[in-house]
Write a structure and sequence with these properties.
Blueprint: H1 3-7, H2 11-30, H3 45-62, H4 67-87, H5 100-118, H6 127-139, H7 146-154, H8 160-171, H9 174-184
Helix pairs in contact: 2-3, 3-5, 4-5, 4-9, 6-7, 8-9
Length: about 190
């Protein structure tokens, strides 16, 4: 008997497979038409975290019964990110062999951005429209990378505290990491 046949009855296998493919498809959505949108390796939370958050959204949209799986995965990402950024700043993760933190912390950052954008009273949007604005800015000659992304976010009314929390998490000062994570993971 083929081992793969037996795995199709395992919900975790199904969820992990869909998550993987949705993550990779999200990278296609992120691409610019002529130029790369992301900066250096130490900014990989921008695209890896976004791809994982989009994978979570896709799984929830296509298979609402996967909500417990997604919730548990996000909680595990919170634990991983919390432990990791207490050891090293997120901006140094690539240099220290902790690329996994770009996925876990990045998902938490993009989740927080998405929730903030959806809650805006003046111009409700979401993470898709934020990424579209980012893509347009870079393709229009703006600097690629995190700085442009955060400047665009900071232009939203009421986003200053969110951007500050993201910057605190990126810089990884031990005294501020816990506060930043608490703000970014509210409701988890």
């Amino acid at each position: 008997m083929n081992e793969l046949d037996g795995k199709f009855s395992d919900p975790n296998f199904i969820n992990e497979t869909i998550w993987f493919f949705a993550h990779e498809v999200a990278h296609l959505y992120q691409q610019g038409s002529e130029t790369g949108l992301y900066g250096d390796a130490n900014e990989s939370w921008l695209h890896e975290g976004n791809a994982d958050w989009l994978a979570a959204l896709a799984l929830l949209d296509l298979y609402p019964e996967s909500s417990k799986y997604v919730s548990n995965k996000i909680k595990a990402f919170k634990e991983s990110c919390t432990k990791g950024v207490k050891e090293i700043p997120l901006v140094e993760a690539a240099n220290r062999g902790r690329f996994d933190l770009y996925y876990s912390c990045g998902l938490l950052i993009h989740r927080a951005i998405d929730l903030f954008l959806q809650g805006e009273n003046t111009d409700p949007s979401n993470i898709f429209s934020m990424w579209s604005s980012f893509r347009q800015e870079v393709e229009g000659g703006g600097e690629k990378g995190v700085d442009t992304f955060l400047v665009l976010l900071s232009q939203r009314e009421g986003a200053a505290e969110l951007v500050n929390s993201i910057e605190l998490l990126l810089d990884g000062k031990p005294s501020s990491v816990g506060v930043a994570l608490d703000q970014l993971t509210y409701g988890l």
